[in-house]
């Protein structure tokens, strides 16, 4: 896909969203928040940032779908604190992470409390009850930055993704205080980064990412629905579109 031809016709992107449960609640927001088209979209630097955002969010969305996680919406509408966001439906691992984060915030607000450790959610061995959804979450969290780097050889603005990944690992792999050594975090991040890159390097998956990014950039409102994202998935080799007539 040649993004350079979009020029002034292109429209804006949003930044990474850390609270995915809140994001899911906003998925059906009408009218959608944020700005579209982006301000100053005629500037090359803004166009590049918008392209990077489209690929970043497309990476999140496509890898989520690759692992079977439903996506309700992708948005590249620009907000004050966000350039783009994806709204996946909550998985068991995501719900556990959000509960853990809420308990930590509650403990931080009450430093004198005897219940400083959210032990009610930190039971690492029960992790295997939803190992599959955890693998999906960890891959999806890093997939945006991986896709952006694959297309542009660099990635900017992924701090929220790193924090989200750290929180997920602390919740599910940490001890009863939620502590995970920095070296372990780095090891797991490198492992999942490479795994994401392997997935996105599959020709049919990368074509899907490019199609989603392009569709988002050309969309009228800077938004794609989950059905629109799914419709852009390339057909597997040797499989014909069922809507096309069979050749005689």
Would you mind describing this structure in some detail?
By secondary structure, the chain is mainly alpha-helical. The chain has helices at 20-26, 44-66, 92-109, 131-152, 159-173, 182-200, 203-218, 226-231; strands at residues 71-75, 85-88, 223-225. The protein is built from eight helices and three strands; from the N terminus they run H-H-E-E-H-H-H-H-H-E-H. The chain starts with 19 loop residues before the first helix and ends in a 17-residue tail after the last helix. It is globular, with a radius of gyration of 19 Å. It has a three-stranded antiparallel sheet.
In percent, how much strand structure appears in the residues? under 5%
Write down the domain tally. Answer: 1
Oligomer: single chain
Q: Name the average pLDDT.
A: 79
Structural class: mainly alpha
So what's the CATH class? Mainly Alpha
Shape: globular
Provide the CATH superfamily. Answer: Peptidase M41
CATH fold assignment: Methane Monooxygenase Hydroxylase, Chain G, domain 1
By CATH, the architecture is named: Up-down Bundle
The number of strands is 3
The helix content, as a percent range, equals: 40-55%
Number of helices: 8
What is the CA-atom radius of gyration, in angstroms? 19 Å
Task: Record the SSE blueprint.
Blueprint: H1 20-26, H2 44-66, E1 71-75, E2 85-88, H3 92-109, H4 131-152, H5 159-173, H6 182-200, H7 203-218, E3 223-225, H8 226-231
Antiparallel strand pairs: 1-2, 1-3
Helix pairs in contact: 2-4, 2-7, 3-5, 4-5, 4-6
Primary descriptors:
248 residues, mainly alpha, Methane Monooxygenase Hydroxylase, Chain G, domain 1, 3-stranded antiparallel beta sheet, 8 helices, 5% strand, disordered N terminus
